[in-house]
Design brief:
Blueprint (H helix, E strand, L loop, with lengths): L1 E13 L12 E13 L11 H13 L18 H15 L11 E10 L2 E5 L3
Antiparallel strand pairs: 1-2, 2-3, 3-4
């Protein structure tokens, strides 16, 4: 099995509506996002997946989140947790790169990590 990983970052504000603590107040993070893609076979060029395509897609998805209040996005239903952000990024990546869906011998997204801080990460693993 082979695996590649790309990363990017974005800055955004949010608050957690159903939370009892300081995170219920509007605040921001400099998010770090890592996407892991794995597969059993390399292409004719000896690569699992072209880094350039994956990085561009990830930047496009995260660019829509950059410098926003995530609570303004209907998708998050006023609770843009790191877990929901990771799931959103995965789903949006699959719209741009549908060949990365689980199953078969093709490379697939194995996980999306969203770091709110250097020591706090949420991971989404697609089915």
């Amino acid at each position: 099995m082979f695996e590649v990983r790309v990363e990017t970052d974005f800055a955004a504000a949010h608050f957690l509506q159903d939370y009892n603590g300081k995170c219920e107040n509007l605040h921001g993070h400099n998010y770090l996002v890592r996407v892991h893609v794995a597969g059993p076979e390399l292409n004719a060029g000896g690569m699992l997946l072209d880094f350039t395509r994956l990085k561009k897609a990830l930047r496009d998805v995260c660019g829509k989140l950059d410098h926003t209040n995530l609570n303004d996005l209907e998708y998050f239903q006023n609770n843009p947790s790191a877990e929901r952000i990771a799931m959103y990024i995965c789903q949006e990546l699959l719209k741009l790169l549908p060949e990365l869906t689980q199953g078969g011998k093709n490379p697939a997204i194995r996980a999306v990590d969203v770091f709110e801080t250097a020591t706090s990460r949420a991971r989404y693993i697609p089915d």
